[in-house]
Amino acid sequence: MVRLAAFIIAFAFLFGVVAERPAPVRPYRLAYSGSGLNHVAVVSDSYTTGTKEGGLGAKSWTSLAWRILGREGVRVSADVAAEGRAGYGVRGDHGSVFADLTGRVVHPDDELVVFFGSRNDQGVDPDAYAEATRSTLESARRMAPAAKLLVIGPPWPTADVPEVVTQLRDILYGQARAVGAAWIDPLAERWFVGRPELIGSDGVHPNDAGHAYLADKIAPLIGTRLTRRL
Question: Domains along the chain?
Answer without folding.
Answer: 36-223 (3.40.50.1110)
